[in-house]
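WARN retry 2 of 3 for item q-0093 after timeout on previous attempt; input resubmitted unchanged.
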Amino acid sequence: MTSVFEKHCQEGNRFIKNLALQLGQPDDLQHALRVLRSVLHGIRNRIIPDESMHIISQLPLLLKGIYVDGWDLKQPLSKAQTFDDFLYDLRNTTERGAGGDFADDESARTKVTAVFNALKEFVDEGELQHLRDGLPKEIAEVI
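OK item q-0093 returned
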């Protein structure tokens, strides 16, 4: 009999494997995790906590953990208005290897889009549209 915890792990592993496939690196799950974490934290730092809660509520348990890991609710929201500003933040996160993961602007854009395409499995389109509406246009276009 599979425990509830094992089911959550299987769901998280399936998601990460799917994301790695979408990123074109199906054998590099660590890369997929770094990209996911960086993008989730990048978005989280731009939206108010209430909006984050709407997104978090739809995520599986392990993705919720990635989203909230290290979250400081007292930290001011990012003022980034352009996709370049967003990439700057992604490249300069504390996530080891993030600078290299997002080094090329075109592939960085593709990776951000891949994360949100993968998240569509859990986050409904209405919530994603609401997220887009609250972000600067250049960033929202990628989601």
